[in-house]
Amino acid sequence: MFDYPALAALAEILRRGSFDAAAAALGVTPSAISQRIRNLEERAGTALIDRGPPLQATEAGARLAAHLENVRLMESALDDRTVPQIRIALNADSLAGWAMPALRHAPGLLDIVIDDQDHAADWLRRGLVMAALTTAGRPLPGCDAVFMGHMRYRATASPGFVAAHFAGGMDADSMAAAPCLSFNTKDALQDQWARQKLGRAVSLPLVRIPATEPFAHATRLGIGWGMNPEALIADDLAAGRLVDLDPDLPIDVPLHWQVNRMMAGVLKPLGDAMKKAAGKALLP
After folding, report:
1. Tell me, which fold does domain 1-82 have in CATH?
2. CA–CA separation, 13 vs 57, rounded Å?
3. Which of 12, 74, 128, 281 could make an S-S bridge to 22, C-beta 3.0–4.6 Å?
4. pTM here?
């Protein structure tokens, strides 16, 4: 049997980042919060919080906190006074673009995990989120999957960058020397495009820009070339601020909404809103 007051303390610590803030939110003393966590860790037989800095959940702690939010979400269907935390995994480009208007339909307080679309399913597989936007089309165990559409990416660079690095065309030598933007270590789009363009892999000199809008801005400024969502940079292409490095070689990334089947009914308004927004913004 779970100790739900202790689980509530765990969830608040992870949500607010400190024992003191969790105590204030729950209206108890910090020592009471610490005691609850000690008891919970003793019963679990493992640490639930990495004290850091920064303070963060261990894998076991994240699972327990996710369990509590799942219970709260199911309770909210019976009692509208219960306000659950809705934890979902989205890729940054969808969040910055088409998905944001749909999120107001979440039946609770949103807690969004940002991860690459090729890896977001891992959060759902580990039980750490209720739903995820992912390239994985096959339903994960215990989940339902709905195809949302394709998000089109274009390899782009500023005119000045093209003149400086690709004046003689794009080949293995020029691409191995030209700075390439990358979102993070999980971002494989640039490597994928380069392999398709050249017919083989090439080692790209990477510049890390881990946010969607700054990534596009860095492309405009000539810091590097990179794969940008077509919808985000369409005006830049039309105005000549960016150049499509090969108009015949876009990359279309399939996106699927996968949701924990036990949560699917309560999350249906959010799922329907995501599907509607995707229908307007994504390719079939």
Report:
1. Arc Repressor Mutant, subunit A (1.10.10)
2. 9
3. 12
4. 0.84
The boundaries of every CATH 3.40.190.10 domain in the chain are 151-251
Closest among 155, 159, 145, 210 to 183, alpha carbons compared: 210
- Which residues are paired to 206 by β-bridges? 180
Rounded to the nearest 10 degrees, the angle between the axes of helix 59-76 and helix 30-44 is 110
DSSP reduced 3-state for 180: strand
CATH superfamily of 151-251: Periplasmic binding protein-like II (3.40.190.10)
